[in-house]
User: Fold this.
Amino acid sequence: MPDRIWWPRPDASGQYVLIDRVQTPKRWLKAVYLLRTPLITQIDDGAVPPDGPASGNFTSSISCITVVIEMLRHLAPAPGDKVLEIGTGTGYNTALLARRTGPGTVTSLEIDRTIADQARQRLHAMGVRARVLTADGEQGDPTGAPFDRIVCTASVRRIPPAWLRQLRPGGVLVAPLDSPAGHDITVRMTGTGPGAAAGRPVATVEFMRLRGQRTARPHTDLGWPADIDAQRWRDYEVHADQHGQRILLRRNRSES
Assistant:
């Protein structure tokens, strides 16, 4: 974690309080290990310096520990698996993946050069052998494909075709997907063939949007039915290929 982080809920003045490891070490340590609280590490793509209370749009964070572990549980990486992570952030998730799958098995992509450099330095200092590349995660890493596991730590409106091409048949992809239900949903998808995957929602979450997919689009243009039943979010199936994605409601709850 960086030495300076913002608390994710505004104070009475409407600003996000900065927590400084040097000035308030106990408060910093307590915040870092809270199970259900994300912490903000960047505001407005780095335009806001971490030198005091601030306002603006969150653009990088470390997810709360419970969400990190839940996503990795659904990803279910095994020793020796080749893993592609989209969104390095602080490098915490990268370190957990590398610990599980082994040295040299994890490639992590981070679009922000400063964030990528900081994560790379932290991981190197810890002896974690993982590739951290400064790159647009939406394009994946064709040089390292195919991957057994792909995980994204930012939400998307559409599963990028590059990820589908780089996921081996039978491999697992876990990503937060924007939905018309009022929240993101974590989807767990399995590669069904070259450039295609299918799966199910497994959890409701709230994530920052992938930078290339921040622009809002009608959900019906992204494969969602016009009359989605928000209460039945678990009962939908997600199918994606090189032509787009389709989200379909299963006929009855007994189907799986």
About this structure: The longest helix spans residues 113-126.
